[in-house]
Amino acid sequence: MKRFFRKTVALLSSAALMLGVVSLAACEDEVKTLGDAPYASLAEAVAATPDQSIAPITAEQAEELLKNPDRGLRMETYITLGSPLQSYPGDDENPFDRARRMIEKYRSDSPTVCQLYVYLSNYNGRDLDEAAFGQLKEMLELFRAADVKILLRFAYMAEKHKGASYRVIKGHLEQIADFMSRNSDLARESIYCWQLGLVGLWGEGHSDDKFIWFLQGRALLNTVLKLLDEDMYLQVRTMDIYHYVPLRYRDRVGMHDDYIIDDLNDKWAFLPADDRRYQAMTEKFRLTLNDGEMPWGGTNLGDTEDGRSLDAMDGKTILQRIAQNSMTTFSLEHNYREKEGAEYSMYRWRTEMTTASEMALIGVSVNPALIAAMGGTMSIYDVLRYHLGYQLMLSDYRVDRNVLSFSVTNYGFAAPLKMNYFGLVVEENGVRKEVEIAAYCKEALTTGETVRYRIRLPDDAVPVGVRMSNNRNSTDTVRFANATRYEGGVQYFA
Fold first, then answer.
1. Is 410 in contact with 446 (CB distance < 8 Å)?
2. Inside any domain, residue 125
3. Phi then psi dihedrals of residue 152, to 5 deg
4. CA gap 430, 440 in Å, rounded
5. Per-residue pLDDT reduced to its tens digit, 458-492
6. Is position 231 within any domain?
7. Do residues 47 and 78 share a domain?
8. Domain limits at 483?
9. Any idea what the Cα angle at residue 67 is, between residues 64 and 73, rounded to 5°?
10. Dist CA 269 CA 325 (whole Å)
11. pLDDT in tens, 131-151
């Protein structure tokens, strides 16, 4: 969000903290018994407290968790395609220089995701040309080289630029689909998730008289979702927009809440917590990718002169909002240190300490072993950056009569929904091999859940470790919250 809304947006919601159980019932083809074939596998949700048969991660190792892909605190930058080539429309800064500046500015915060606004303002009313696609390709390549994934949003409308008609948007989407097809490897390796964007100021869906949601909303969402690969998620800004998502696509459409403050019932949120529908929607969003950001530092409530300052918001309340909405990413660029020398809300949280028991009292999932390793306390800022998205820990390891069993617990705020593959690494007669764990279901590992895996081993197989990744051939692998060796994408059991 480039600035605040100046209009109240009608949104959905309901009351109360919701950390309900999403078990293996969310997964298709659930197996009830362990088969006899080599490497047959079984997964079951359990309520047991994880043991330390696989040592938990140490304080010295903890920052390695921040390198995990497709999660965490994120940056934000812009590119306005065409001529003049700019970052934000009307700004003089070169967009590639700005992107590099953001990467350097936030290096110490270890982000692996950046929200990229791609403004098509210079092409409102005409086709995108090769210059535009060359600029877009260069930006995707820049972030791929930096090992940073992109949260992608296209937009037209800014303070001095009008919105586009549906005809223009549809034509550009067809061109973008062709570009993504021709550059499929680059798109897959650089884009983490899409945001709908396209309509309204900053792509937030409001203040645009060129687009009529009642007549064109469903067609727009259908066009965008058909463009995306089946394993790519989309986010929308308001519940009003979500209503236009075709039913067949709703399992991969989450939300981005661009106005998170320390009032769970604020009317500009995606889901004010006092709305009767809040509980059902937060449960639904446990199985989608979701993003959030606070208002800019230096602003007041409601973007008014007499509203209360939002520069020192309560971090625990905001953690509740983030956890309740299963957020995978959250903005570093808003209300942190966007202005040189300023110390806004998130910056203050770096010295505001809490404990695992205090977080449990307000319904926020944290890893107690990690907090214990750090001396029993953790800053609000660290709770946020370590627990956004997934944080997975191995435990309960044993081998009994050729059956391997171990558990995975997710202490993060969201399931590892981009991790489509889970493999077991073994040695058979001195030869290392990797076998897919067929019982794995990413949707079962929602926040706070523990899943126990049982795998039948051949007589000559020795378990070595596990590897979780975007897909079998991907190098985007998960570092588990364990002290054992992590090498080549493999988390070793010992």
1. yes
2. yes
3. -100, 130
4. 26
5. 999 999 999 999 999 999 999 999 999 999 999 99
6. yes
7. no
8. 31-56+392-492
9. 120
10. 11
11. 999 999 999 999 999 999 999
